[in-house]
From TrEMBL:
It holds the Pfam family Myb_DNA-binding. It is found in: Nucleus. The lineage of its organism: Eukaryota, Viridiplantae, Streptophyta, Embryophyta, Tracheophyta. Residues 126-164 are annotated as: Disordered. This is Uncharacterized protein. GO terms for biological process: carboxylic acid biosynthetic process; regulation of DNA-templated transcription. Its main location: nucleus. Residues 9-61, 62-112 form the Myb-like domain. It comes from the Eukaryota. GO terms for molecular function: transcription cis-regulatory region binding. Residues 9-61, 62-116 form the HTH myb-type domain. Residues 131-158 have a biased composition (Pro residues). It comes from Oryza brachyantha (malo sina). Keywords: DNA-binding, Nucleus, Repeat, Transcription, Transcription regulation.
Length: 279
DNA sequence: AAGCGGCGCAACCGCGTCACA
DNA sequence: ATGTGACGCGGTTGCGCCGCT
């Protein structure tokens, strides 16, 4: 036991990162990579804990990050994956190149949940919600059924009978592809190769040699193919422009069309498009 | 124009897991 | 086999921004 707090209370900074800190961290990681996060702040001259550095890097500074709102296709994909995986954001993020688990989690909590509820889908179970109760006829003494506890782990993954498939999946080390994603064939973009510590390999120890600053060893054309000048907004630090415009949207939206990401939910739930409950 | 409330995002916290001694 | 340390993940919090009154 006695696990020590990762940030010894003494003298380590917390809270928002400054441009200078960002610069130090990025500069260090691009030059040296990271062997272990614990030493990164020390070597980079930061008064932060390694954990904080890792988070900052993976959620914000990584050159391959795609920023901005999730596209409809991405949103749809997130919903499908959530249906299968539950709140396993890192696994979901692994399927969305350039997106972070944190970002997806936030988007889920702030946008998608609401949208699903609005169309009568329980965002936890992905089941059709009970229609709004009719105006209470006072005598209805039966207490409302307890709200399904939210954030209670993954939904009983869809209609799968019994068993925690997540656990099972874990047993199989989940590298087993989740069952084929229905309806996704037309929307999944060609997986962008995953550079530098990107999700699936969030844990990966990508080594970045100085020589490979722009194409870290664990990277791929994704990064190497992207000029630094196309790094994401945080790279404002270095006077770099957004990477956002780099063709990802183009890639996925080849499926084209402005598809309502919830359309199939309307359908699954037996609604016509308009036939939604406004809750 | 100012105040207030809600929303969204970045960051933190704590636990689980894994690797290694 | 066991204990320890590091990392990663998911949940939660805090704060700034923006829109509404």
């Amino acid at each position: 036991m006695g696990r020590q707090p990762c940030c010894d209370k003494v003298g380590l900074k917390k809270g928002p990162w400054t441009a200078e800190e960002d610069q130090k961290l990025v500069g260090f990681l691009l030059t040296h990579g990271h062997c272990c996060w614990r030493v990164v702040p020390k070597l980079a001259g930061l008064l932060r804990c390694g954990k904080s550095c890792r988070l900052r890097w993976t959620n914000y500074l990584r050159p391959d990050l795609k920023r901005g709102l999730l596209s409809d296709d991405e949103e749809r994909l997130v919903i499908e994956l959530h249906k299968q995986l539950g709140n396993r954001w890192s696994k979901i993020a692994a399927r969305l190149p350039g997106r972070t688990d944190n970002e997806i989690k936030n988007h889920w909590n702030t946008h998608i949940k609401k949208k699903l509820r609005k169309i009568g889908i329980d965002p936890v179970t992905h089941q059709v919600l009970e229609p709004p109760r009719p105006p209470p006829c006072e005598q209805d003494a039966t207490p409302p059924p307890p709200e399904p506890p939210e954030q209670q782990g993954p939904p009983p993954p869809q209609e799968q009978q019994g068993g925690d498939i997540m656990r099972e999946a874990d047993g199989n080390e989940e590298e087993e592809e989740p069952s084929p994603l229905i309806e996704l064939h037309e929307m999944t973009a060609p997986p962008r190769p995953r550079p530098l510590g990107a999700a699936e390999g969030a844990t990966s120890t990508c080594s970045v040699s100085p020589a490979s600053v722009l194409s870290p060893s664990c990277s791929s054309s994704a990064v190497s193919g992207v000029d630094v000048t196309e790094w994401p907004e945080p790279m404002y630090l270095f006077g770099m422009d957004g990477i956002m415009d780099v063709g990802w949207d183009g890639l996925i939206s080849d499926a084209g069309v402005d598809v309502d990401p919830f359309a199939h939910y309307y359908h699954d739930a037996g609604f016509d498009d308009q036939d939604v409950w406004i809750i």
